[in-house]
Structures are given as C-alpha cells and as structure tokens.
C-alpha cells in the first residue's frame, strides 16, 4: 500500500526551543514486510517436503511386505529429501550473495573456466535426462571438459592455465560459477529429454558474454520480468514435481550484479530460453589469477 508511516518526536533542545523530528517509516515497514514474507515463504517451502517425507515414511512402513511399493516410496522419499537439500543449499547461496558483508574476491578469471565448472556441476543431471551440453567460444565449438594429459605428466592445473583460455573477466570466481551453474541447471530442468543446451562464451566490444540457450518449455512473456524474484515460479505445480527452490535466478541475478554485470533473458514458450550474462572484459595487463590466495 502507499501508506506513509511517520514517526514524530518532539525534543526539548533547551532555551525554550523545541524541534520536531520526523522519520519516514515507510521504507522500514516495507523492509519488514519483505522479510516477513521471506520467512513465511521459506517455512512453507521447508514444510512441504518435510511433511511429504513424514507421510511417505509412514506409508513405506505400512507397505513393508510389498517390495515394489517399498522401492517406489523410498524413491519418493529420496526425491523429497533431495529437494530439501537443494533448498537449503540455495538459501545458503542467497544469503552469501545478499550479505552486505559478503566479500567479492574480484580477480582476473577465465569466463571459459567458469562455464566449464558450471557444466561439470550439472553433467550428471544432464546425462540422466539425455540432455547434450555443448560449449563454444566466440562461436567455435570447444570441449566441455579439459582433456586429462594422456601420459600422466602432471595435470593442466599444475602446469598453469593454457595460454589461450578465452575471454577474461574480473569477477569473483565462486559467485560467477554459482550464477552460471544455476542457469545450466534450469536449462536442463525445463527442457525435454534428448535436447541440447548450448553454453556460449563470447567477447565483443569490451564486453564478455556467457550465454545459456535451451530448447525447453520457454517462459511466457508476462512472467519474464518476474522470474528473478525470490520464490517466483511460472508453474508452481511443475516446479514442485521437478524440485526447484524458486531461488536459483534470484541468486544468479545477485551474483552477476555484485560483479558489475547484467543479466537478460529471451524466451518463447515451446521454443526455449536464452539467458545472457554480460560483464566488462578484463584488461589483460595484471594477472590476478596467479596471485597467491594469502594476498589481500
Ligand atoms: P526454480 O528453482 O523453480 O527453477 P528459479 O529461480 O531458478 O527457480 O527460476 C524461477 C522460475 O523461472 C522457474 O520456476 C521456472 O518457471 C522459470 N524458469 C527458469 N529458467 C527457465 C528455463 N530455462 N526455461 C523455462 N523456465 C525457466
């Protein structure tokens, strides 16, 4: 509502002089309301799988004589507990991203490494859904994984980053990996089996882009500017089934903005979605990545 909350205090400042202090409380009220909503949402999100697990555990006990039923209900228990775990992880990520004390460890890092780490974190899920993840740099296809040296003569990591490591950005590695990981996770999540998710890293006009393109269900136009809100879901029933926390994109947006970047989305229902992160390219003089972890 547009109610204006004012706190008025009359103070005696001596010598028959009085002052009236007026505080606009509406901002604080709004903040409190947002916080209350958040706690309500979190409680609800935790209660649903927790309640389901309790119920399913009871059912599995009753069905102890029927191996098929036991298998089925145990599977559902696993699914619900995975959902709880995901929600807790996302809450921690969100807390990290939003904390005013959060330290942004901005270093010169490879956007390609970020993309590869985000893909690696989702590879198992992609395989299980037969979703093919592809990676490209400036339109050129590259492997999603860095090849292990065949002769075992030390890993690439030990010998340092290869000279051609694609576009570089100045950003917090962990935050950027979290941001891209969530986009890839969603791309797989909201796509039918046997489709392709294309991750593209590019550099142009002093800007580095990390793009995640899927051939999934897409997002209705009217929802496009709401999907970055905490707990907003286009289809809550579907999300419940596939187990999303509703926090992924809120986390991603925070991580990107904290690192001086922007995120945008294009989508058409039934065709797919494209999420694009854009960050300033890092000038190539100082190589922060080589700096030791102890330095500040
Ligand atoms: P969730 O955990 O539900 O996926 P997110 O914050 O990551 O939460 O996303 C919010 C909502 O945006 C999702 O519930 C889904 O409706 C929609 N969404 C996000 N990414 C995609 C995508 N790649 N394709 C289709 N819908 C998406």
Automatic annotation (TrEMBL):
Entry annotated with the keyword NAD: no
What are the Histidine kinase domain coordinates in residue numbering? 41-283
Q: Which GO terms describe its cellular component?
A: plasma membrane
> Is Cell inner membrane included in the keywords of this UniProt record?
no
Q: What is its EC number?
A: 2.7.13.3
The UniProt keyword set, sorted, is:
Kinase, Membrane, Phosphoprotein, Transferase, Transmembrane, Transmembrane helix, Two-component regulatory system
One biological process GO term for this chain? Answer: cellular response to phosphate starvation
Question: According to the UniProt record, where is the region Disordered?
Answer: 139-168, 276-296
Q: What class of enzyme is it?
A: transferase
> Where in or outside the cell is it found?
Cell membrane
Q: Which domain of life is it from?
A: Bacteria
Recorded GO terms, molecular function? phosphoprotein phosphatase activity; phosphorelay sensor kinase activity
Q: Its catalytic activity?
A: ATP + protein L-histidine = ADP + protein N-phospho-L-histidine
Q: Which sequence ranges form a coiled-coil region, renumbered to this chain?
A: none
Name of the molecule in the record: Sensor-like histidine kinase SenX3
Tell me the organism.
Answer: Bifidobacterium longum (strain NCC 2705)
Which residues of the parent protein does this chain contain? 146 to 441 of 443
């Amino acid at each position: 509502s547009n109610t204006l909350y004012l706190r008025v205090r009359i103070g005696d400042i001596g010598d028959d002089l009085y002052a009236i202090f007026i505080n606009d409380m509406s901002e604080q009220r709004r903040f409190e309301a947002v916080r209350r909503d958040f706690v309500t949402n979190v409680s609800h999100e935790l209660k649903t799988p927790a309640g389901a697990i309790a119920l399913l555990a009871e059912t599995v006990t009753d069905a102890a004589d029927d191996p098929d039923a036991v298998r089925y209900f145990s599977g559902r228990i696993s699914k619900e507990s995975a959902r709880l775990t995901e929600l807790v992880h996302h809450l921690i990520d969100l807390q990290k991203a939003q904390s005013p004390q959060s330290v942004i460890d901005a270093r010169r890092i490879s956007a390609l490494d970020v993309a590869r780490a985000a893909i690696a974190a989702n590879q198992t899920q992609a395989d299980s859904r037969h979703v093919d993840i592809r990676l490209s740099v400036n339109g050129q296809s590259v492997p999603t994984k860095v090849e292990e040296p065949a002769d075992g003569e030390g890993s690439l990591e030990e010998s340092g980053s290869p000279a051609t490591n694609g576009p570089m950005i100045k950003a917090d590695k962990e935050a950027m990996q979290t941001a891209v990981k969530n986009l890839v996770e969603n791309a797989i999540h909201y796509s039918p089996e046997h489709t392709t998710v294309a991750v593209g890293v590019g550099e142009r006009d002093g800007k580095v882009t990390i793009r995640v393109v899927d051939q999934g269900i897409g997002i209705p136009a009217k929802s496009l500017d709401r999907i970055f809100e905490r707990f907003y879901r286009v289809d809550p029933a579907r999300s419940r089934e596939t187990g999303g926390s509703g926090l992924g994109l809120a986390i991603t947006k925070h991580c990107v903005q904290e690192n001086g970047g922007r995120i945008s989305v294009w989508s058409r229902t039934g065709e797919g979605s494209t999420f694009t992160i854009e960050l300033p390219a890092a000038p190539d003089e100082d190589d922060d990545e080589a700096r030791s972890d102890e330095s500040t």
